[in-house]
Amino acid sequence: MDSETCFLTLPDRRLAYQQCRGAVDKNSKKAPDILFLGGFASDMTGSKAKFLNQECRTANRGYLRFDYRGHGQSSGRFEDGTIGDWFDDALTVFDRLTEGPQLVIGSSMGGWIGLLLARARPERVAGFIGIAAAPDFTEELIVPTLTPVQREQLEREGAIYDDEAPPDRRAPMTKKLIDEARGRLVLREPLVLRGPAHLLQGQMDRDVPWQHALKIAERLTAPSVRVTLIKDGDHSLSRPEDLSLLWHVIQGFF
Description:
single chain, 8-stranded mixed beta sheet, 8 helices, 12 strands
């Protein structure tokens, strides 16, 4: 059962979100609530976001998922968005809709947003889980692989598309996004977290090489940093066994 979709109305945008409140047991220590951050061109109806909603409701644990501007049910055009815009959405949702410590879970691009969030609100991010986390993906994974034809197209048209993606999922990679992202890079210096971190990474991931997870781990300074490589896992990590592993990791955090 899904939670009700609500909207956070701001002067320049309208952000869709779903939230379930956790039960408060005064006789025991409350585990941090969970904030899920989706990936590039994904929305809160994805399999991982829905799975977490179901599990958190069953466990009476607080949970929040939302759509960045230009994604899902939120306002705006996807092609106008940047990492800075989507981080601002996450920070606004974090500040206005959550209270207390949060376990931040970032999928793909959401891992980048989550690490930016942890840097901005270190006292409230109790832990971080990356699922095929892709911080700095524009500069680390996209730009180095561009062909001369793609570079020319990016300059001429302002966007390129992944021709290998299904037609309904060919989201534009814009020059505006790539240029703006250079001011949001997080892997050029140590990343300090007050809580533990765990990175789940498929070794069959065609979008984020598994070595990228090791690079993230090298940059992280945290009480505990773990990397789990799933040999037959793809970028989505949405199979039943992947989702079961995710929940197992969450349960072992606190």
